[in-house]
Amino acid sequence: MEPEEYNTPESVPIIIDNGCTTYRFGFANASTPFSIANIYSRYRERKHNLQIALFGDNVEVESGAKTQSKTAWEGDILINFDAMENALDYAFCKLGLDTDSVAHPVVVSERLCTPAYSRSVLNEMLFEGYNVPKATFAIDSLMSFYHNTPDQPQRDGIVLSFNSASTSVIPVLNGKGVLANAKRMPWGASQASEYLLKLVQMKYPYFHTRVTPQQSAWMLRTFCQLSPNYLETLRELSTPVGMKLHDRIVQFPYVAPEEKTQEELARQMERKKEAGRRLQEMAIAKRKEKMETLASELAEALALKERLKAGEIAGDELDAELERLNYDDVGHLNNALKNMQQAMKRARKKEGEMDDDDEEEPTYPLIDIPDDQLSENSLREKRKQKLMKANSDARKIQKEQRIEDKRIKAEEAAREQDERDKDLSAWSNKMRSQHDMQVRKRQKAALLDRKSAASQSRMKNVASLASDMPGPRKRRKGNEGEHIVMRRCVPTLKYSDDTFGADDDDWQIYRKINTAAPDESEEEDMTRLAVIEKQLLEYDPTFTLEQTYASVSSARSKLLEAFRPAYPEDDVRGHARIHLNVERWRTVETWFSPGIAGLDSAGLGEIVQFVLSRFKPEQRLRMAKNVFLTGAPAQFPGLPVRVHGAIQEVLETGAEIRTRVANDATLDAWNGMARFSLTPEFDQHAITRSFYDEHGPERIIKWWGGNWV
Amino acid sequence: MPPKGWRKGQPEADSGVTLPEQLSFMHIPKPFKNPAYTKNATRRTQTLKTLLSREKERDKAARAERSKLKGGVDAGDVKMEIENVADNTMDAEDRMDVDAAGEKRPVVLLQLDEDELAEGLDPDDVPSYFSIEAPPSFLPPKRYCDITGLEGPYRDPKTGLRYHDLGVYNYIQNLNPATIQAHLSTRSSGAVVIK
C-alpha cells in the first residue's frame, strides 16, 4: 500500500465513518473520502515468510487472507477492537501521517445508542493509543440529515437510517435528535441479503455452483425494489404472464459443451456403423464355422451308424472308432446323433434356409392300435405318443385361436378405420368424450376426501381393528404386577389364539384400509384410458401428448413453470441461470413486514407510525414535512413512496408529507461530519484530552448530533 | 507502536514482490501510535453475549438510580445530587477499569435544554440500546405462499406449508422433509417439527 502525501495542517480534523460494511475516512477538507470495505486480515505469507496485513477489498487477492479476515462489527455492535485498531492504523497510514501522534482532531461515527463498552474502548484507543487532541462521536444518519439540510439549523424531521444490520427511525426536533423516542429494528441489508440467498438456494437446490453472499448482495442491490402496494404487485405476479414479465435472469458462468460439427457427427455415425458391421460379420463367420464342425461331426457319426447297421464294424474296431469320435458307447452315439440332427435343423432354420411350415407332422402309428395287441415296450411308446399328440393338438388350437384373434382385431380396426374415414371429427369426439369421462373418474377418485362415505367407513374399520387388538405390546413387557393385572382385566388374551390370516378373506381388510393401493378397477380404468389415448394420439391430429392423463396429472403448473422455468437436461446454459421474479419484491418487503422472514418485530411502517404517535399533533405535522432516508439500502426504488404511504396513515388527510433520500445515501454521513467539523460548533462539543483525563472513556458531551449517553 | 516484525516486512528490492506484499500496510511505519499504550486483553475480548448482558445491567442500574433520586426531592436538589453522585462515581471510572467499577455505575444525568422541555419531552426517558428496540408487530400477519411468495390462502395440514394454488400444492406433495423444513424455517426462527 502506498501512503498519500501528507501535507495537511494539524487543525484539519480526520473524519472516519466507521460503517459495518464500508469504512470511509479522510481529512475534513477532502472532497471525497477514501471508501473501502471494513474488513481486515493478517496472516503470514509463505513465500518470503512475511507478516502481511491487508485491509478492505485487498483481502480478496489472496484466498488465505480471506479465510483469516475479521471485521470490527458483529451485527450492529462494535466489538472486535483488534480489527478496529487495524482499521484506524490503516486509515492513518493511508493518510500518510508521519508524526509522533495523531495530531488532528478526530470525528468518528457511531451507532445510535451504542453500548457503553463499544464507545469507551474506542475512546480509550483514540486518546491513549494515538494521542489525539480532540475527538467527537456522531450518529451517522443525523450527520447525513445535517448535510442535506444545511440552511435549516432549526430543522425538524424523521430520519430513517438504513444500516447493514439494523434500521432506525430517529425523530428530529429543532435540529436535535430525540433519541428517547427513536426506534431500531434488527433488520438491515445484510439480513435481507441473507434472506435472498436462502430463497435462491431453496428455489435452486441443485444449482451447479455455490451462490456466494456477495452475489446475493449484488442481486439484492441490482434487482430488488419496493412496490407501493405489495399485495397488488403479488396479484400482478400471480399469473404466468405477469410472472414472466417481471422475471430477471441472472446468468452464472458455465462451461459450454463442445459443439460437434455436422462432419464430425457424420464421421462418428460412420464409425459406429462400421463397428456394427464388423461385429455382424464376425458373428456370421463364427456361426458358419460352428455349423461346419457340426456338419462334419454329424457326417462322421452318420457314417459310423451306417457301418454299424450294415454290420461292417464290431468289437475292438468299433470301440476304437467310438473313442476316436468321443462317444462312450453306441447309446451315446445314438443320442448325440439325434441332438446333432436337431441342432442342425435349428441352425438351418435360423439362417432362413428352411421354412417354418416345413416342419413335418410326426406320425403316431401306435395310437390307434388297441392295447392288448401291444407289447409292454410298445405300450410305453403308445402312452408317449398319446401325450405328444395332445400337445401338438393344443398347439394347433392355440395357433388357430391366434389367427382368429388377429382376424377379429383386423376387422375391428377396419371398422374403426371405416368410421374414421367417414367422419373423423365424430369419431374423435366420441373418443374424447370417453377419454374425458375416464379422466374425470380418476380425478374424482383422487379427490375423495376424508369426509367421504368411503373414507368414513375406512376409519371405522381402522378404529374397530384397533379396539379389537389386545393391550399394546409394551404393556406386556412391563413389570410383573402390571402383567398380572392386565391378565385379569382382559381375560381372553387374543395373542395366542389369534387366527387372523388363516382365512384368506382376512387380508381383504388391508385393501379396505389402504385405499392408496391401486385396486383392480383402477387398473382396468388405466388400461382402458391407455387404449383410448393411443388411438387418439394415432389418428386425431389435434390430440397431443400434453393432453394425456399421465402428463395432465403430473404436469407442473404453468405458474410454477414461470416462477422457476425448467430447462432441458442438456441445456448447460439454462442450468446456470437464476430466475428472480417474486423475490425481487419479497426480499425488500421484509423491511415492512419482517414476519415473512421470521423476525418478530414491527415493520418499518409501523415503527414510523409508532414514533410519530409519541409526539403532539403539531410536532407530527412539522416532522412529516421532512422525512429523510439515508444509508445504502435507502436507494431501493420505491422506498420513499412506501414510507410516504405509511406516514399518511397516521396523519389527518391533507397533511403535507415530503419524503426524500439523501443526495448521496452512502457518503453523506461522512460529508456531514466533515462539514460539521469545520464549524466553530465542533470545538464546543468535542472531547478534549483534559476532559478525557478527568472523566474517563465512558463520558461524552451531549450534543445534537451525538448519542445522549 | 510498530507491530512486532514490521522491520522484517520491508520488501526486498531485488526479489519479486508478491501482490499481497505490495498491498500490505504491515511494513509501513506507524510513528503516531503510542508505544506505551498496551491493550488490555481481557478488556478487549468480550463476547457479544457478555457485552449485551453488561449493558443491560448498566441500563437497569441507571434507571433504578434515577427513579430513586427523583422521589421526594424538588428539581433543583435533584440536579445537585445527581451531579454529586456522578462525580463520586467518576473517580472509580478514572481508573479505567470498567469491570471493577461494574458495581457502581455513574448515573447518567440527562439535561434537557429549554427547547426540548418546550417540546414537552420527558426528561426521565433516557434512551439505551435496549429501550430503542422496536416493539413486536401489532398487525395481523399476512399469509404468503412458502414456495412462491405469492398470496397463500391455504395451508397444507400435513407439512404446515402455506401455498398459493393447486399447482403449488402438488409441488409440495413431492418435497422431502429436509426441503419442507428449510421452507418452514425461513419464516420462523426456531426449528419446526413436522407432524
UniProtKB/TrEMBL annotation, chain A:
Residues 353-362 have a biased composition (Acidic residues). SUPFAM superfamilies: Actin-like ATPase domain. Belongs to the actin family. Residues 392-424 have a biased composition (Basic and acidic residues). It comes from Serendipita vermifera MAFF 305830. This is Uncharacterized protein. InterPro entries: Actin (IPR004000), ATPase_NBD (IPR043129). Residues 347-479 are annotated as: Disordered. It holds the Pfam family Actin.
TrEMBL record, chain B:
Keywords: Nucleus, Transcription, Transcription regulation. It is found in: Nucleus. Residues 51-72 are annotated as: Disordered. It holds the Pfam family YL1_C. The keyword Nucleus applies. Residues 143-172 form the Vps72/YL1 C-terminal domain. InterPro entries: INO80C/Ies6, Vps72/YL1_C. GO terms for biological process: chromatin remodeling. SMART domains: YL1_C. One of its GO terms (cellular component) is Ino80 complex. Its main location: nucleus. Residues 52-68 have a biased composition (Basic and acidic residues). This is Vps72/YL1 C-terminal domain-containing protein.
